[in-house]
Amino acid sequence: MGCFEIWALWVMVTIICIHADTSEDGIQAECLGNRVQFTLPSSLSAGSHLEVYAVNNTHTVFLTPHLAAQCGYTQKLDPWGNTIVSASLQSCFAENQGDKVFKVAMQFKLYEITTLSEKVHEVFKTCSHTMISREILCEKNFMEVSVRNALPEIKMEPVKEWPTDIPNLQLWKILLYTPGEKAFQKDTLQAMGYSVYTSPTRLVMRSPFGMAENFIQNVDNVDMIVFKSVVLFRDRWIMTLVESAAACPINGASVEGQMIYWHVPLHITPLVSSEVEILEVHLGVNGRRFTLEEMVNRNYVMTITDSHIIVEIPIGAAYGNYKSHVLNEQYHVSYNIEPVLELLWKEGLDMTSYKVLFPITTPLTSSQLQVKDYTQPKQKVFDVLLGYFLPDVELLNITFVSELLTVSEIINKGILLQEHSFSNNTKAFTLQVPFSDPQVQIKNFRLDVTTYTLPLVFGFAIMPEHTTFAHSIVLEASLADIVLPQAEGSCNEDYFNMYVQYGTTPSSQIKIKLGHMELNNTILQQYQYHSNETHFDIIVPFLSPVVAFESVQLAGIMGRLDVEMYDSLNNWSFREFSLACPFFVKMSECFPNGTITVIIPKLESVPHLHPGELSLRDPACKPYDIEDYFAYFHFNVTSCGTTRKFVGDTMIYENEVTWKKDEPLPQTSENPETEYRFMVSCIYIANATQSMIFQTVSHFKEPYADVGKGELTVSLRLSKDMVYRLFYHDGDFPVVKFLKQPLYFEVGMNQSRDSRIAVVLENCWATLTEDRESKPRWDLIVDGCASPKDPEQTIILPVVADERVDIPDHFKRFEVKTFTFTEDDESSKSENATLARRVS
pTM (2 decimals)? Predict the structure, then answer.
């Protein structure tokens, strides 16, 4: 053996190794009668692209499937991935030495794409074989007949009338029987895919299976494909013919239980014309003959009847193999074996050797895959075995819910995936996945139990065909490891502070309802909150719509915040929590000019109350503004049925906010109240003396003021309600309001403590954009008064001292009903106005 390295122009390395018989690399070559067989071990070809070439002296020919059948070659893979190439000793490219010694050479090219390398193995085998009168070979892809040509020898004295030169017979014409007779030239026949070869002593005819000129003949209930020909040889003055025929079975095998029965006709009528004498019968597998001892030890049975040779092969017998298949997306297996039957018979003086290699595949049977779940929930790891497969099955990937991972990707993620091989030539795969893996689905069918689910789809390929199939399983384990979420809270001056601890339930599954409203991203933007994977806290103003008002006293409102937590995945309610607190709210305010303002909330005890249905004693006096849960009244002490009475030096003005359902509802827990009353009182001192301190200045002196310069910070803020306790911040804008809904503005100096300074609101106007000089504009306040164009749209409100306002002169308040701009008019009602102001 010798090896040589050749560098190609594109930097591919080619290594050529020449072998005879068994090489150092393990390539085997053996003579099997009129065949030679080469075995390329899988260790050489694994991971490489293989090409097989026939070698004739210095020439190599790539063996396509069509050329291999025409020239007498077969190629297959065994279950272990070894490549087996067989050739007839009289194949197209064999070296023939006197029809007695034959040399067959092969070349195997292996291409390694990743390393751009090419390795070439050349191997040859020389076999001696004594030919008899006729030899017939039936392979899986071709049939071949080799006959002695029996051309006559001229042994006579020349006469004057005859030519004196020795005849030189040449192949003239070939007749094929289909079964009708058709004549062909040799070149034409070979172009069609047949092979015609002559030597000084032999004629070899070869036909691939499935050729148009073949025909099928039934012989003793076995269909046989027949290739029959007559070859005509001639010279100028003599002609002779050579008959040849080959017949190969295409069926005759059957399966009964766990036994294969193969019937071969004893008298193959297309090949014989009279009674024959059977001299030898041999049985083997994969081209090799069995000894009688081997047949007995492996439970092979051969029986000869008057009409057939019957071969019995147990399914699973030695030298056969199981093969994986996919049928209707399910895993199936078959048993494959290639028995060889050799007959030697005598017909007259002629001997015939008949050899048939007959691949048998049993019908597909479903192989139920087994799933063994070894999961121990307390270990929090899924542990599963999936089997059992034949060695030709490879695991390609696993789909975890929606993520497909290859085997290498799974191992790189740290997931334990293993392949296990067993002594019965099967294998299985084990997989271990922690419960904490993101692909594991977590559900709670009970509040105190967590169910872990892992859907898996295993993707397999059957080699070498690369036929893919999948098998799905769902792993499930339950574990009592739940810590339920819980809520707690506290009350501040004007808001609730709620705190929720999620427990072990994922925060993404927990939904929280405050009052009647389920929290989402849109609603949460209205509140101050903080959330992470473990807890959630939120500040809820007591005037928020989610707060239920239980009762109203002169001192304020009793508010209650209900919190409900539930599992959105399983629709389970965990627990409810309620927190009730009193909040001081100035429900009414009496102004020195005789104006009274009242804010009335909707109580939980009157669920059917609509704030717009409230009125004062005079039913015509309705709220001047309403919201979903509040009604706002603004009236004078001399209107709306307000009464007055004197008590000592005081005047007491009283009115009443009332509601009564026209059609009383039945008294139930859902309709507890059908009436609503709220008394409003204002007390004024009738006789009071106010002291004033003033100083006079001599008229002889002109008054003057010290000239000074400075900067004072003045802010314009929008209140959330008419009591000016809660204000919108920069992040709350834009604020959505309905048409004609009032906006409460406050202009003030928060930094100055000088009571000698006062804020005077001269002018205020609205524009469409933030540019205060843009057009159009609409005046709201002009020279300190409501705009004369629409005096009812803007209301100047008084400012009195309270816990927030120490110096009322530092603030100015006014109310503006929401409006919008139009193209044909300078204003109408909407929230899209930008207020610009000039404050001094």
Answer: 0.57
